[in-house]
Design goal:
The chain is about 75% helix and about 0% strand. The chain is mostly helical.
Length: about 200
């Protein structure tokens, strides 16, 4: 396997590894508010997250940005916590701030934090030229994210159908139950992670 292929595989496995639960939880929290018809908004949010983590990953790996690992490891669950709480608090994105488009900026900012976390892992894996490994690892991360988001979309659609069939009301009510339920679980897990990783 080429060096590029090796780093693509490493990035892909890094996202899907159970040890990367924090990144999977963030993607689940991000996806929790979207339905099939919201694919454009979801695409904007995911693209913003990708842009954010790509910038910080490149800066941190090249040494242009040095961030303390304990602080980054603490901030990552806080981004998950904030995303989950925002999911619960905002009932209607269409009628909210900038018709919900603020979420792309929100996820780009959180992507900056996650990119620093990816960089801490990647920096220990190579010596010498970084262009190929950086590109390959980032590509692997994106492929892994697509798998996580695709799985989340199937899971969330299944939850919607189950809630609608259980007689809890109309589709909109089932959707809101899903957003609150999934986000509440994510918030509880993220809060525990934040407490366990606090740097003081």
């Amino acid at each position: 396997m080429s060096e590029l292929g090796t780093f693509v595989e490493l990035g892909f496995r890094h996202i899907l590894n159970p040890g990367a639960l924090d990144h999977i939880l963030f993607l689940l929290a991000l996806a929790a508010v979207y339905r099939r018809e919201d694919w454009r908004d979801a695409l904007w949010a995911v693209s913003a997250f990708t842009l954010g983590h790509s910038i910080t990953l490149a800066l941190a790996v090249t040494g242009a940005l040095v961030l303390p690992t304990p602080v980054i490891e603490f901030l990552i669950p806080l981004t998950i916590l904030a995303t989950g709480l925002e999911n619960i608090a905002v009932r209607s994105r269409a009628g909210g701030l900038w018709h919900g488009r603020y979420r792309a900026g929100f996820t780009a900012m959180f992507g900056l934090v996650h990119g620093a976390g990816f960089a801490n892992y990647l920096r220990s894996l190579f010596a010498g030229s970084i262009a190929g490994p950086l590109f390959g690892f980032n590509l692997g991360i994106e492929l892994g994210q697509l798998v996580v988001l695709g799985s989340a979309a199937i899971l969330l659609a299944g939850i919607d159908r189950a809630l609608a069939a259980s007689g809890r009301g109309f589709a909109m009510a089932a959707y809101r139950w899903r957003v609150i339920g999934v986000s509440a679980v994510v918030v509880m897990v993220a809060a525990r992670m934040a407490v366990e990783r606090r740097p003081w």
